[in-house]
Design goal:
With about 600 residues, the chain is mainly β. The protein has three domains: about 5-215, Immunoglobulins (Immunoglobulin-like, Sandwich), CATH 2.60.40; about 215-405, Immunoglobulin-like, CATH 2.60.40; about 410-560, Sandwich (Immunoglobulin-like). About 5% of the residues lie in helices and about 40% in strands. The protein contains three helices and 43 strands. The strands form ten sheets. Strands 1, 2, 4, 5, 9, 11, 12 and 16 form an eight-stranded mixed sheet that branches. The radius of gyration is 40 Å and the shape is rod-shaped.
Length: about 600
């Protein structure tokens, strides 16, 4: 795999503040540490020294890590400057050009003094390019003697292969830099900051990038797939590793360039002087956006901090975050609920300043937004879901990222056709139950609407009794002889460790390809149409993501007519008995009448 093409969530964000040190460069682009730094006590530049600019590119976590502006001096030229635990950045691309002022322009900041107005390129110098080495170092040796004196513009440039601002991390993976560092001017030689009678011929600068590890991960019930009996509740989880710059407590004077004023919406310099210290600096915004599928009913949204120990800490709506549904703000303690089907639900979670402060207490903190949903009880098919985050850190460009490797929800169904024996006509009124195994079907343990199975008693009740609101999943053939089961759970992965849950990190538990997702069910006919026999054995049906298509019938059930059994003779015997009793009665009455007549 070409690692230069492999993007991941970790991004470098640049901030236009520099720290300066100094050393002697050798060669056009040198990666060797200087043995000493060329600082001359003569205020007049010589015509023998090499002129060079050395960059040390490293990452910081937030604006608070900027430190003071540098002075071009390297405290210990025999080694890399003290990084205080910070990481240097490899393979960051830079270019350097020589410039000259137009008229009386004073060149101090290329963000303020623009090309064509304040300065133009000095064509006597050929542009130089290079990239930082494994130590985050890049030296530009611009020449020897007075002809090399002047002002140089240094700027970060795009990588020629990826056409983007990039660096290489400690794992050898190419990462994207969201915003390159601001360009800057360097005088060669440079006047020593604390002793203006001295000149520095080898100037070190320390450009910084704020590196944010905003890894986005969307899961469903903790995995990358899920399936239950449709109509039951489940949840999606949007988990984001938070950037470190959402909140910073500034204790030193500094100026943040390219800061978006939240009041007037204008980009400007934010000057933090001693009168403002300590200063709480917040990101302009941090938002999580999700578009809930039209087939889902949204029941609630909850927001948590997932700390470095894996513990969830619930945040409070309207205090630490705000949430809108379809652009309408949901106020606590109202549930974020929309039980309609047929339209997407746009949900936005926005951290407040109080929330930003709370989530940046510890490093490696994640924000988890939980969307509690359900589907219609007869839903069939696949639902995929992704989400995005966007935020604006102080002095940065707006950043947006979208989750990848998104999870999916699966349900399936199938059709039954009930026909007469000759298959020439259909039968109405046949009733079917469904079981998750043949053993369950034989034991009359049938699937219910909550996804569990319950044993059916002789009187039609269940053992144990069905929970309140739960019913058996049944189907009855209609006038067209058709019955159907919908919204059935499917199998989508191999549970290699037997814990009942998918763990994508466990080998073999990856989500199956769509054509493998399926599950076997057994159909039992519990009531036959009038005049017809029941089928005697459970009928197996394999349900897939495609079997719910009404154009196909997965199970045809043929009913045989009841047979005409011979007469038992029972009706003729009864008639003889009745005639005999009548004859005896008549005879008795006749004898009594005759006896009375004789007596008379």
């Amino acid at each position: 795999m070409n690692k230069r093409k492999k993007w991941v969530g970790k991004l470098a964000l640049s901030i236009g503040v520099l720290t300066m040190f100094g050393t002697t460069g050798v060669g056009q682009i040198s990666v060797m540490y200087a043995a000493d730094q060329n600082i001359n006590n003569n205020a007049v530049s010589d015509d023998t020294s090499n002129r060079s600019i050395t960059l040390w590119k490293y990452e910081i976590k937030s604006t608070a890590d900027l430190g003071d502006r540098g002075d071009g001096i390297n405290p210990d030229p025999s080694k890399a400057p003290d990084l205080d635990g910070k990481k240097l950045m490899k393979d960051v691309n830079f270019e350097i050009i020589k410039v000259k002022a137009i008229g009386t322009a004073s060149l101090t900041d290329p963000l303020v003094q623009t090309e064509g107005t304040a300065w133009e390129t000095d064509m006597s110098f050929n542009k130089m390019t290079g990239k930082t080495d494994e130590n985050g170092k890049l030296t530009f040796n611009v020449g020897t003697g007075k002809t090399a004196d002047g002002i140089y513009l240094v700027r970060e440039i795009k990588d020629v292969l990826t056409n983007d601002y990039t660096y290489t991390d400690e794992n050898g993976e190419t990462k994207k830099i969201n915003k390159p560092m601001d360009p800057f001017f360097v005088h060669l030689p440079q006047t020593k900051r604390d002793d203006t009678g001295k000149l520095i011929y080898d100037v070190h600068v320390y450009p910084k990038n704020i590196v944010t590890d905003t890894e986005l991960d969307k899961t469903i019930e903790g995995g990358k797939g899920h399936s239950i009996k449709a109509g039951n509740d489940f949840q999606w989880e949007a988990t984001t590793k938070l950037p470190a710059g959402l909140y910073s407590n500034i204790t030193k004077e500094m100026t943040i360039t390219n800061w978006l004023d939240p009041i007037d919406g204008i980009n400007k310099d934010l000057v933090i002087d001693s009168s403002k210290l300590p200063f709480d600096l917040f990101a302009n915004y941090f938002r999580v956006k999700d578009s809930i599928d039209e087939e889902l009913k949204l029941k609630d949204v909850e927001v948590y901090i997932l700390d470095k120990n894996g513990d969830l800490i619930k945040l409070t709506n309207e205090m630490e975050y705000e949430v809108t549904l379809g652009g309408k703000k949901i106020s606590a303690p109202n549930k974020v609920e929309d039980l309609t089907v047929g339209a997407k639900k746009e949900v936005v979670v926005n951290l407040t300043q109080l929330g930003m402060k709370k989530v940046t207490v510890d490093e490696d903190t994640h924000l988890q937004v939980v969307y509690k949903v359900t589907t219609d009880k007869d839903f069939n098919g696949t639902i995929s879901n992704k989400y995005s985050v966007d935020y604006l850190l102080p002095g940065q460009d707006p950043f947006t990222d979208e989750s990848k490797g998104n999870p999916e929800y699966y349900d399936g169904g199938f059709d039954i056709l009930k026909t007469k024996e000759d298959k020439s006509s259909v039968l109405k009124g046949a009733e079917f139950y469904i079981a998750t195994s043949e053993a369950n079907a034989i034991a009359k343990k049938f699937l219910a609407s909550d996804g569990s199975s319950y044993t059916l008693k002789e009187d039609g009740s269940s053992t144990p009794d069905l929970p309140i609101g739960v019913t058996y999943v049944t189907a009855i053939s209609d006038d067209n002889g058709k019955a159907e089961f919908n919204g059935l759970k499917l199998n989508w992965f191999t549970d290699t460790d037997g814990d009942g849950k998918q763990d994508p990190s466990v080998p073999g538990e990856e989500t199956w390809a769509k054509d493998r997702i399926s599950k076997d069910y057994w159909v039992v006919e519990t009531k036959a149409p009038e005049g017809y026999e029941l089928i005697k054995d459970p009928q197996k049906v394999t349900v897939t993501l495609g079997t719910a298509d009404d154009a196909l019938v997965e199970l045809t059930v043929v009913n045989k007519k009841k047979t005409d059994l011979p007469f038992t003779g029972g009706e003729g015997t009864m008639l003889i008995i009745i005639i005999a009793i009548a004859a005896i009665t008549i005879g008795t009455v006749t004898i009594m009448i005759d006896k009375k007549r004789r007596q008379a």
